[in-house]
Amino acid sequence: MSALTFTARGMPAADIDCGGLTCDSLAGKSAAEVAKLPILVGGRQTPCGDVFDVSGSDTMQIVFRGNGATCNRIGAGMTIGSIRVEGDAGDHLGLQMKGGKITVTGNAGDFAACEMKRGRIVVQGNVGDSAGAPLPGNKKGMSGGMLVVHGNAGERLADQLRRGQILVAGNAGAYAASRMIAGTLVVLGTVGAHCGHAMRRGSLIVRQRPPLPATFADCGTHTLAFLPLLMASWKEAGAPFATLPVNPRAQRWMGDTGNGGKAEVLVWA
Amino acid sequence: MLIKLTGGKVIDPAHNVDGVARDIYIRDGRIVDAPEPGAKVDQEYDLRGKLVMAGAIDLHTHIGGGKVNIARAMLPEDHRPDLCAATDLERSGCGHAAPSTFTTGYRYAEMGYTAGFEPAMMPVNARQAHMEMGDTPIIDKGAYAMLGSDDLLLSLMKDGVDQRVINDYVAWTITHSQAMGLKVVNPGGISAFKFNQRKLDLDEQAPFYGVTPRQILKTLAQALHDLGVPHPLHVHGCNLGVPGNVQTTLDSFAALDGLPAHFTHIQFHSYGTEGDRKFSSGAAHIAEMVNKHKNISVDVGQILFGQTVTASGDNMSQHRNAAHADPSKSVIMDIECDAGCGVVPFRYRDTNFVNALQWCIGLETFLLVDDPWRVFLTTDHPNGAPFTSYPHLIRLLMDKSFRNEQLARINTDAAGLSTLGSLDREYSLYEIAIMTRAAPAKTLGLRDRGHLGVGAAADITVYTEDADREKMFAKPNYVFKDGTLVARDGRIVQVVWGNTHVVKPEYDPGIEKVIEPHFRRFRTQRMGNFKISNDEMCECGHGSKLHVHDCTHGRKQ
Q1: pLDDT in tens, B395-430
Q2: Which among A78, A72, A162, A178 has a CA at the least distance from the CA of A120?
Q3: Residue B554 has pLDDT above 60, yes or no
Q4: pLDDT tens readout for residues B117-172
Q5: Summary mean pLDDT of chain B
Q6: Count of the separate structural domains present in chain A
Q7: Does B92 contact A at CB distance below 8 Å?
Q8: Residues A4, A71: one domain?
Q9: Does A67 share its domain with A157?
């Protein structure tokens, strides 16, 4: 069986809500049936077939091909199966995802892995702002699973992260790990200003000392037995995370003392 | 245009009509006498076998004013799962517990409601409240101005001025804030909160001003009585939500010395301290007193399980409740010289002992108060539950077996403590029509609403009788607003703009010599800007009409 494939018909002028095109909601449907499903295009109900050329039959493997930067909410709420985006994905990639896997070969927009609960998202390119954050006004961001970004991340990365891991191979923008509740954020490149602002608990792991706010306290260098174990869990994420030299020594900052001070920033080489 | 509603079974308690099949004629938005034989009927609706009632009236629903907007702004999670798309007729909107103004109007009308009254309009915030209500389509609106913790009233009382001065101030406030009545919220308590006090009992002197809640209640109830305002003082008493407050409430009844008053969301004021958990139902005591004292009416403020948001002027009690906020965020604020405001999202859970008992207490109150003319059906929207749950509540009242099924599902400790299971009363359709139509119209002084007599406004709701009362009341067949068919089978078919109801009690203009300096010295607004003109009301209400009601109710000559 070939993967159920959505190939964009030209450049859609409006945002396309792909939230309904998941392995869960399309199970048991043929390509012809899927093409008739109404989806929101620019806020109006439109048959899916008007914006996508639908082919293939395996609803457990979905492929989005072509210009996907306007395809929002890809994989929203999915629990099983895999989605592969060949090219860019729009905003809210993997919104409230509960399982399965999403791979994006290009870039993803804002709010990737927003309120994600379980599963795995891999973005080969960059992600926009607020990856792993909650929807505006909500109180908890991503609460499980793993987001792997091979490029750079925008601002407010891991804002109010509750649980789970976010691995970024490139750089992160301003306010990384702001208001983080728990969970782990790893950035191999540089981190922007105000990182860890109002961070409550959880770990921000970096390779060079970030510009920390004054409300973080240097707690010295430690040998942390959990670091090798944590790094072992990155094996599945592949290079460069799986190939990092294993080193249990890290310098530790605690903060944000303006918000309890139970979070840590680990700098390890 | 002459419209004929043919052969429906009419339930019209204001005229003692219970299920008599007859024709109703509507001309120019009013119910009229049967025309001469042969007169041309422009439209006819065959209602044979259907039930006809006046449009329902909600006399206590938070649909306007700053607190509702704060709730809207604070709760995007309330809006996201509940989106309403725009149609050719309707504006888009959203919201379950704190719906947008447009959605509020549509949903009320779809449910057969044709009027709703905002019970806590802070005078300083009246313009905002009226503009929001002005954007609420179809239904009629009105509001009760809120006094009782405002600096000027407390100063006047502290100075021991004559009751006539208070009366003038009350009348001036009602008139210029364009209100339909007067509400007092935690009398003196909101002011005490500003002095860092977290509790104020009925006979406790408020800080700085030295007056007691009892004096405030009595003074304001007297003022409304003297002014002849139809709706008596709308009382949200002291100690809301505090176990043991049933005694406070009973004492508050007595504090009125026989003056009429309406005690609102009484469920939140009916808590005892018996049992292991020091929390019990005081509904039986409250109902006994209400049955005995004809000067008292109540609305229940029933809670129903699920997510909602509580919005109140009582920032003292909301500050207390903020610890239980779900999701955990809240807004507690002081409002300049006038009152306060507290918005706390809340999820009532049937597995929670306290919530389950609150549910029982509300229903006990409904079932134990004998006179449906003096107990009104409310959930204190959105504080106990959103108004869209009224059909469910009606079914709980009308269907004992359904009620007992629900009772079996709640926290067993709470169910065991409640007498609800032993109450056999089932409300009749006639009684429901009283408590949702005739009685609210009567207490508010809306002489041409809430009934189906000749001359009444043609606010009419038509139901198909169904043993499942929830289904029946959720989607009436036809809803007419001032003679226009606005909803059919629970869908909006025409959007009109309802009227705004106000009263304008007489006062001595000399009172402005007292009020003006207070504005100039203490407030951010001058007195002239505070006043809302009639023209402004109509402009902000999409041209809706302003109905000024008489103030001759039981008036002292």
Answers
A1: 999 999 999 999 999 999 999 999 999 999 999 999
A2: A78
A3: no
A4: 999 999 999 999 999 999 999 999 999 999 999 999 999 999 999 999 999 999 99
A5: 95
A6: 2
A7: no
A8: yes
A9: no
**Same-domain pairing of A94 and A136:** no
**Which of A135, A136, A139 has its CB closest to that of B328?**
A139
- C-alpha B352/C-alpha B39 separation (Å) is 62
What does pTM read for this prediction?
0.90
Q: How many CB pairs under 8 A join A and B?
A: 14
Q: Hey, what are B536's tokens? A: 């402004």
Residue B13: which of B435, B339, B354, B296 has the closest Cα? B435
Closest CA to A20 of A67, A55, A82, A72: A72
Q: Tell me the pLDDT band of B556, cut-offs 50, 70 and 90.
A: very low
Backbone angles phi, psi at B296, to 5 degrees: -105, 135
How many Å lie between the alpha carbon of B99 and the closest alpha carbon of chain A? 16
Please check whether residue A112 lies inside any domain of the structure: no
A157 located within any domain: yes
What is the average pLDDT score of chain A?
Answer: 94
Query: CB–CB of B76 and A139 under 8 A?
Result: no
CA distances from B124 to B129, B195, B528 (A): 10, 20, 12
Residue A44 domain-assigned? Answer: yes
Euclidean distance between CA atoms B174 and B178, whole angstroms:
6
Please state the CATH superfamily assignment of the domain spanning residues B54-492 in this structure.
Metal-dependent hydrolases (3.20.20.140)
Q: Does the CB of A135 have a partner CB in chain B at under 8 Å?
A: yes
B74 and A137 in contact by Cβ < 8 A? Answer: yes
pLDDT for residue B389 is more than 80: yes
Same domain, yes or no, for A191 and A216? yes
Q: How far is CA B309 from the centre of its chain?
A: 16
Asked whether residue A116 is domain-assigned, the answer is no
Q: What is the pLDDT of residue B38?
A: 85
A76 in the same domain as A162:
no
Q: What is the pLDDT of residues B334-381, one digit of tens each?
A: 998 899 999 999 999 999 999 999 999 999 999 999 999 999 999 999
From the list B270, B345, B273, B326, the residue with the least C-alpha distance to B302 is: B270
* Cβ-based contacts of A136 with chain B (< 8 Å): 76
Examine the domain organization and report whether A98 and A134 are in the same domain: no
Closest C-alpha among A160, A205, A161 to residue A183: A161
Where are the domains positioned within chain B? 54-492
Domain that holds residue A3: 1-106
* Chain A nearest-CA residue for B329: A139
What digits encode the pLDDT tens for the residues A66-118?
Answer: 877 889 999 999 999 999 999 999 999 999 999 999 999 999 999 999 999 99
- Distance between A137 CA and the closest CA of chain B, angstroms: 6
Of B76, B328, B329, the CB nearest to A136: B76
B81 interface with A at CB cutoff 8 Å: no
Amino acid, res. B31? I
